[in-house]
């Protein structure tokens, strides 16, 4: 047994061990399984949020983009660098507070509570589930490819093992297991990326020497306009690259649930610092290694394998194992969050809301676990069919999620006049806009990224429709007061908590004393 396989076996056992440990200490009710009992501190919140948003894209798509387009890829990195602190600053504290006031335990249920109508959830849940399933499919495929490359196993068998480990600890410990394993995996991510970056730069003789060698191949690789200069002046496409991993991921339900699980609202401030530090250490390295791979492993048939092949070339055997664990960590930390959130949407926001209402706490958790297992099996079958392009799948799914949900989540806590009609129309308009732009090839035809088209559609729609219908569909006074309260830093007034509408907040958590200080 070589050292790479030994590292991976130990790594998988640690993840399963965390899942088993968490299953013993966490509560068995819905809030415990789906939100970890709302008790996460700043470090776990930040690293869970960031590792979840990184995904296998960072070791596949990012490296491939750097390999094929050079410094143009850094537009994506620039957007991603500020994404964590932006998300926590704009949504973190306010969403944590509002979700408590409204008694929300799922990110889609939160939207229905803020925009009271059964149609809010009926529209939001299918859109989110559709996009997140394709996103998790890309992660499962990436996980299988990484494991197969390291171990030499057949891809189908590697997929079964990778998915089995993810499902194992997710089923055992729920959100708390996902959060703690993501925290551990975030640390492995940083160590692995820094190690491979340093080794890569040493191999090419340093950053300056690497730049000179890239320039000798193609000077355009050293510009931010693409390998053929095709993106020069294409600001609509560049804006999309900046937005998809910055503003865009404020609309990702599996990321935003991190805000709801914080110990108290004030956790968001320190979490923003941890998130920024993680991003600075981790994100640029993936794109730089992808670029330098042109010098180390030229003529790759599949550019998305660039970082994998560089690691095999420049690292000693004992280090390859750690880096491969880091690659698996990037993939699995996103896959587990997506799988848990997709299962939550299917079981709680669709089945529990529209089919089998008034489920007991234990029955609800069982349905969630069963749904996660079913989705994993479906994902396994589809991943075995070898769908192409991890990068393309991730960008499409995340673009639609961002376009559909960013205005709804942001306006939920910042604009008290945003109403139900505006939110529902916005989600539909954003989805239609992003999907239509993608199908029509707006990037090539108009020079505007599909993400930008979708965001413009959804933002304009929520503003126009909310203003046009404010008299016939006003925001309920109780919801308006709750939104006003989120702008204040201080204890949650008892009158607002006690005055909740039980038809909207059926799962209100208790107000703990430490929450009252937030």
TrEMBL record:
Transmembrane stretches, start-end: 6-25, 73-91, 118-137, 157-176, 183-204, 232-252, 273-297, 367-387, 393-415, 422-440, 446-468
* Pfam families xrefs: SSF (PF00474)
Q: Where in the cell is it found?
A: Cell membrane
Query: What InterPro entries does the annotation carry?
Result: Na/Glc_symporter_sf (IPR038377), Na/Pro_symporter (IPR011851), Na/solute_symporter (IPR001734), Sodium:Solute_Symporter (IPR050277)
Specify where the region named Disordered lies, as residue ranges. Answer: 498-518
Organism's domain of life?
A: Bacteria
Query: Reaction(s) catalyzed by this protein?
Result: L-proline(in) + Na(+)(in) = L-proline(out) + Na(+)(out)
> Is rRNA-binding included in the keywords of this UniProt record?
no
UniProt keywords, alphabetically: Amino-acid transport, Cell membrane, Ion transport, Membrane, Sodium, Sodium transport, Symport, Transmembrane, Transmembrane helix, Transport
Q: Does the keyword Signal apply?
A: no
Classify the main location: membrane
- The entry's protein name is Sodium/proline symporter
Protein's gene:
putP_2
């Amino acid at each position: 047994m070589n050292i790479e396989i030994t590292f991976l076996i130990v790594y998988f056992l640690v993840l399963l061990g965390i899942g088993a440990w968490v299953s013993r200490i966490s509560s068995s009710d819905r809030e415990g399984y789906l939100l970890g009992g709302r008790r996460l501190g700043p470090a776990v919140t930040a690293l869970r949020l960031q590792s979840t948003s990184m995904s296998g894209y960072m070791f596949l798509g990012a490296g491939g983009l750097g390999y094929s387009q050079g410094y143009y890829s850094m537009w994506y990195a620039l957007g991603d660098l500020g994404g964590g602190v932006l998300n926590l600053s704009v949504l973190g504290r306010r969403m944590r507070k509002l979700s408590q006031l409204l008694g929300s335990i799922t990110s889609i249920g939160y939207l229905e509570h803020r925009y009271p109508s059964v149609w809010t959830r009926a529209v939001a849940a299918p859109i989110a589930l559709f996009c997140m399933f394709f996103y998790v499919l890309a992660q499962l495929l990436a996980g299988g490819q990484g494991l197969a490359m390291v171990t030499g196993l057949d891809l189908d068998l590697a997929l079964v093992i990778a998915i089995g480990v993810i499902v194992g600890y997710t089923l055992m410990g729920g959100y708390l297991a996902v959060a703690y394993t993501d925290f551990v995996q975030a640390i492995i991510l940083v160590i692995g990326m820094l190690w491979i970056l340093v080794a890569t730069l040493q191999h090419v003789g340093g950053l300056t020497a690497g730049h000179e060698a890239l320039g000798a191949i193609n000077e355009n690789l050293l510009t931010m306009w693409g390998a053929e200069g095709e993106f020069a002046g294409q600001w609509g496409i560049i804006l999309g690259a900046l937005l998809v991993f910055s503003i865009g991921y404020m609309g990702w339900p599996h990321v935003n649930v991190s805000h709801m699980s914080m110990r108290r609202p004030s956790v968001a401030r320190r979490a923003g610092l941890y998130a920024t530090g993680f991003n600075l250490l981790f994100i640029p390295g993936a794109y730089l290694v992808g670029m330098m791979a042109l010098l180390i492993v030229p003529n790759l048939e599949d550019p998305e394998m660039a970082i994998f092949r560089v690691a095999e070339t420049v690292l000693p055997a004992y280090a390859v194992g750690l880096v491969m664990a880091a690659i698996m960590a990037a993939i699995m930390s996103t896959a587990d969050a997506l799988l848990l959130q997709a299962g939550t949407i299917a079981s709680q926001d669709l089945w529990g809301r529209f089919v089998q209402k008034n489920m007991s706490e234990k029955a609800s958790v069982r349905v969630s676990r069963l749904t996660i297992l079913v989705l994993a099996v479906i994902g396994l079958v589809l991943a075995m069919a070898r769908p192409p392009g991890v990068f393309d799948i991730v960008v499409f799914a995340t673009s639609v999620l961002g376009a559909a949900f960013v205005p709804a989540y942001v306006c939920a806590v910042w604009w008290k006049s945003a109403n139900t009609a505006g939110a529902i129309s916005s989600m539909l308009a954003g989805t239609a806009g992003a999907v239509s732009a993608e199908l029509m090839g707006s990037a090539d035809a108009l020079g505007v990224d599909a993400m930008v088209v979708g965001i413009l559609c959804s933002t304009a729609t929520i503003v126009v429709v909310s203003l046009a219908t404010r008299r016939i569909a006003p925001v309920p006074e109780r919801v308006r007061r709750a939104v006003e309260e989120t702008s204040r830093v201080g204890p949650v007034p008892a009158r607002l908590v006690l005055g909740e509408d039980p038809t909207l907040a059926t799962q209100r958590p208790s107000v703990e004393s430490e929450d009252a200080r937030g």
